[in-house]
Design goal:
By secondary structure, the protein is of the alpha+beta class. It has 2 domains: 91 residues, no CATH class; 67 residues. Helix content is 41%, strand content 21%. It contains 6 helices and 6 strands, in the order ββββββαααααα. A hairpin with a 2-residue loop joins strand 4 and strand 5. The longest helix has 17 residues. The relative contact order is 0.12.
C-alpha cells in the first residue's frame, strides 16, 4: 500500500559526476523498502525508518543503474508547504538517529492491560495470573486481597469484554 498523497515527494534524478557532493546511489539509501518503476517509467521509492514513511516519486535518470543527484520538484506552488513537511520526514528517515520510544499514556496502558487480561483469561489463566503478568508477582502478593490491584484487573477485564463485544477484534483481523 502506498502512502497517502501528502507523503509523496516529487524529485528529479540527474546524472552527475561521482565527485559531486550531492551524488547518491538510491538503492543504498537508509530505509529503502521498495523500488518500483511504473508503466510510464516513473520510479517510486518507498522509504520507511524512524517512525516515518515517505514515497519518493522520481523522474529523470535511472536510479537503479547509476549514482544521481536528486532535486525536489513540487508539482504546484501550493505544494511547497507540504514539501517542507516531507523534507522533515526525509531527514528523519535518513538521519539514522535513534527515535525515542513513544511514552505510554494512561489510555494506551489501560487498553494494553485490558488485552493482556483478556488473552490470559482466554488461555485459561485467572485474573490473578493476568495481574501477575501486568504488575509482577511481588505487587500481586502484597496487594491482591486488600488492595486495589484486584479491582483494577477486573476493570481491565470488563474493558476488554466491552472492546470485544463492540467488534474491536474485527479491526485486528
Amino acid at each position: 500500500m502506498l502512502p497517502e498523497e501528502d507523503k509523496v515527494l516529487s524529485v528529479v534524478a540527474k546524472r552527475t559526476s561521482s565527485t559531486d557532493s550531492r551524488v547518491v546511489f538510491v538503492p543504498r539509501l537508509r530505509g529503502v523498502e521498495h523500488i518500483l518503476i511504473d508503466a510510464e517509467g516513473c520510479q517510486h521509492v518507498l522509504l520507511r525508518a524512524n517512525g516515518r514513511v515517505l514515497q519518493l516519486e522520481i523522474a529523470g535518470a535511472d536510479i537503479l543503474s547509476e549514482q544521481v543527484a536528486l532535486t525536489i520538484s513540487p508539482r504546484r506552488l501550493d505544494w511547497l508547504g507540504r514539501a517542507a513537511s516531507q523534507m522533515s520526514d526525509l531527514h528523519r528517515i535518513l538521519s539514522g538517529a535513534p527515535v525515542p520510544a513513544q511514552p505510554w499514556t494512561a489510555r494506551t496502558l489501560n487498553r494494553r492491560d485490558s488485552f493482556i487480561v483478556f488473552d490470559c483469561l482466554i488461555a485459561g489463566g485467572t485474573e490473578r495470573d493476568a495481574g501477575t503478568i501486568i504488575h509482577g508477582a511481588a505487587a500481586i502478593a502484597q496487594d491482591w486481597r486488600q488492595g486495589s490491584l484486584r479491582q483494577r484487573v477486573r476493570r481491565d477485564r470488563q474493558r476488554a469484554e466491552h472492546f470485544v463485544s463492540e467488534g474491536y477484534r474485527d479491526l485486528l483481523r
